[in-house]
Amino acid sequence: MPMSDDKHEAARLELFFEAARAHPPEPSAALMAAVLRAAETGQPAPRREPLLARLRDAFGGWPALAGLATAAAAGVWIGTALPEGTIGAAEAGYLVDVAPELAFDLAGDF
Amino acid sequence: MAMPFDEHDDTPDETLLAAFAAGDAAAARRLTFRLTPRVLAHAFRLLGNRAEAEEVAQEAMLRLWRQASEWRAGEARLSTWLYRVTANLCIDRRRRAKGGTVPLDAVPEPPDTQPGAAERMQTHARAEALQAALNELPERQRQAVVLRHIEGLANPEIAMIMGASVEAVESLTTRGRRALAAALGTRKEELGYADER
After folding, report:
1. Do B127 and A20 touch (CB under 8 A)?
2. Domain final residue, candidates B70, B100, B130
């Protein structure tokens, strides 16, 4: 086939390719909905940090967490080192619970 | 092809997929509206059947969601992967249909009465004629011609999608074009391009 015929043929075919590009099938609403639904059900849950990292962030970083750990350890020591025996009315007057909600939270862990 | 609200969204597909894998629901939506029309169009051109193309498009997108968390950035373009998956699903379907040519949808389009309707009908007729001729091509020729001349991809990318050499792709597109020209040449008066060039 001579070159001019090749070019002519390519130009004629291009009209058809152009027409195909101009008429793509539009996806139906049902297809789009099915694809979106599949994305929702197949989507991994947002990544969660490990428990320790979440605790660290909740308390404002490692120094705060270390302080909390120290305070907790001190609380345990004070609790276990108290002298045995009943506390008299005079001593009981000095026992003031300054943070009852904290004591309640910690009660579960110890 | 871009959907209307996707026109100015040039975030790479791969970036959106990574966001989807990290749990970003908006990224899933943007990918759906950007990629589903493309996948559907490609499947339709390979199968010639609208209903089957929709099923293939749905399955291809489902596979995309499933492997999102395992996608390795930089290894391949998402579009290359998607073209390959779509083509493989189409080939499986055609083989299951025992090699028979799948007919075009039988439901006729409603008549177009808007201004410029004659020109649009001619364009539409050409698109349909091309699809009918594509349906008659051997599988690999059809795939190569569609990727090269309708999707507008370069031969090296087509070679990656088809798992073939660039030379093989060139040969397939040349033979495919020749067969199309022969098939469509018989209808040139009917389709009104004899007087245009």
Report:
1. yes
2. B100
